[in-house]
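#dry-run=false #mode=assembly
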Amino acid sequence: MTAEPTQPTEAIEGTERVRGPGEVDAVPLVGQPHVRRRAGASLVVGGVLVAVVVLMALVSFVWTPHDPTLVNAEARLRDVGDPDYWLGTDKFGRDVFSQILVGARTTLFVGVVAVGVAGLIGVPLGIVSAMATGWLGETVMRAMDLLLAFPALLLAIMFSAIYGGSTLVAMIAIGIATIPIFARIVRSGALQVLSSEYILAARAAGRSPWAIGLRHVLPNVSSLVIVQASVAFAIAVLAEAALSFLGYGTPPPIPSWGRMLQESQELLYSAPRLAFIPGAAIALAVLGFNLLGDGLRDRYDPRLEDRR
Amino acid sequence: MSVNPADRAAAGSAAYGPMSAVGDERPVLDVRGLSVSIGGHDLLHDLTFSIRRGERVGLIGESGSGKSLTSLALLGLLPEGARVTGSARLAGVEHDVVGARDRELAQVRGNEVSMVFQEPMTALNPTMRVGAQVAETIVMHAGRGDRPEAGRGAVRERVATLLDQVGLPSTAEIARAYPHQLSGGQRQRVVLAIALANDPGLLVCDEPTTALDVTVQARVLDLIVRGVEARNSALLFITHDLSVVATVCERVLVMYGGRIVEAGPVSEVFTRPRHRYTEGLLAASDLEGADPLEPLETIPGSVPPAGMFPEGCVFRTRCAHATTECEVLPPWSGATPEHGYACVHPAGVDR
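#status=ok
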């Protein structure tokens, strides 16, 4: 493969760059001052949506209108607006609103686990591979390529098959599959940071490679990590929904938005609300995390702050 | 012949007083036969010079003559794959900088020797408050050797003192600011404060004022000289601005093509240059003596790309006086590396 000399490093190394799902572009975030746009709006909307999800999860610990897992044959398929069941009931007579509330816990849990696994492993790997010269950095990145080539959902299904289906196992698998995205984003950002003069100045002041990685590189790629984390959070929520839909995610009877969607499919024509309600919950949560990530980046990156 | 930098040289030494070096003391920096090659290109050839405590030495030359590379070599900051031979020893450091491991060098950098970089806009970490960056340098080397352990309050006090010494007003506010909230001059003062934090024996400044406003330049230069004088530190000042060298330095090294082509006291080198390259540099920067209707004096041609300098005298391809004799490396004229030139047809002989 021939590469033009003007192409970025990744291309010169002779590797096809496969863009992972939801991977964001690293270039405009580092080093270049850019105009602040719609910082307020996306932060507020995203923040409110995420806050609603968090609030729902917290409320579900102390109060739900009904037991979300209670099967009640007498109250089957109540419509939205029922005085006892605000959002209706499903085919087993379980309260939809209660399930949505408890399902928010599952959603947050999967996001935190998957992003935690991916971030805690991917970010250090990215920084190390950027700072380590020679074979180590290359080996790490080729391993990441290998992992990236493996479909995330397939990995999760495989894990579930081996270790038994549980939300935790599925999300660790999703997290592992997301590691390369973090590693790559952080690596490209870190390479840019490492070429800057304050890194040279830090070395000239006698700072050790560890201190440089931790104190100088990490904070300067944190905006990339924040944005990537919010995107990965949204991906994890979607992945959990997909896995639950396929029957490999959250096992019944623990309420999960994805499984609510799955259970609604046979009633799609007679009771479309059963698909619409959890679907809307998933969509709004994913939208919320994406907007929050955008807003946080625009707001809290000190390099974008106006001069006072 | 009226040379502008020479006038400044006289004024300069009056402004900052004579050099306070003690003759028999071991030099702060002793460089012997330092050569660097990267990727098969020989970039620095056989550099030999030393700087004593309290001495201020200028290193001048056009872009591409190896000035910055020299400074990086002295701190052991050359890119990987650079081949370095010779020796560079610092007072108070057991091992040679050349060939030392990174771990050993990390203890020397910022402690025995520190550096001020050219570009104040990029020399500070944009995500750290500047006070924290100054403090980091202090804390990092605290408790090492004869340095006291630094407590939190002591460090904060030291940061305030340092920022005050580099002329930054209301230091508590400055210390809490992020680099982007400061002006270029303020940032360079912070960089200087970091460099001086541990009272280094040697301060290397790589074009520290080139990126600054002219009025700010004078202030920062003043602070640099005061800073090293107060600590009796040695200063290696890299620049292509001859008038700055004349103001700040007592001794000067003229560099071209990775070699030191002339060395000596500023007053002598700038009034009676011997090497034809030095002569050309001075003529090119002599604005007062220039006829406003005539084009400015220049050195013909341009600096060859790295590794493409000619054999023999490195300057002979651009020199009006070059003959076949210049094809062999001209010998060093002086008895010491501190004073002399390497030219077969030196200026000022027939006069």
